Please model this.
Amino acid sequence: MPELPEVEALREFLDAHLVGKEIARVLPVAISVLKTYDPPLSALDGARVTGVARHGKFLDITTDGAAGELHLVTHLARAGWLQWRDVLPSGFPKPGKGPLALRTALTEGDGFDLTEAGTTKRLAVHLVRDPSEVPGVARLGPDPLAPGFDLAAFRALLAGERRQIKGALRDQSLVAGIGNAYSDEILHAARMSPFKPTQNLTPEETAALYAAMRTTLDEAVERSHGLAAGRLKAEKKSGLRVHGRTGEACPVCGDTIREVSFADSSLQYCPTCQTGGKPLADRRMSRLLK
Model:
């Protein structure tokens, strides 16, 4: 799933390639992709792109046209992606079983496709007059890379929380933009078990977690800086230390990276770095081994 660093890199890429250009048309291909109907996508015909923003994992393309200011807001979900094309194929794309979900064509002949792999279709596109009209945007917590999001703000967010820290980091209404992969990376950098209860964090552990979060996300954004959209997936994978690396050696201590599986996801961690050398039990069967 694209998370904050990848979506920020896409925002930066689109800001350089899209702003100032005129939209010829926006064509939905997958029936499930468009989540709004008023205003219609045809309201973007002839509109000019004035900016590209990010809200957590949401991309927000701002336009100005005959219908006034509109926002094309996209959430790429687990398997979605944006593919820029210097020259779009001619003609109208045909709906089918392929990955293409939506095409945005510019008057200069370039544009981008939104694609989604797999059979579970969750990629979502909204055309709204204000991004806060998108329910997922409206409920977002603060951005962890925002200038004002300091340690005191992080402590205030965690105050009163009573759940495992892995789940808290992934909760978009608590902190925006962190998903399964980067929560694994942050917890590894903080040397913290993913199942540690938030209410048990000491002030020192909270400070370490905050520092790990900022450093991990800052470094991921920096690695993605200036990359073309097509290279971002590979960059994300190459920069991960534990997530998706079950069975490999931890780059910090050399222990074997382990995995805990859930119904629709999994997490990876290093026992030596994070759980005092003790493996975590599969959460489908038992609790954390103590």
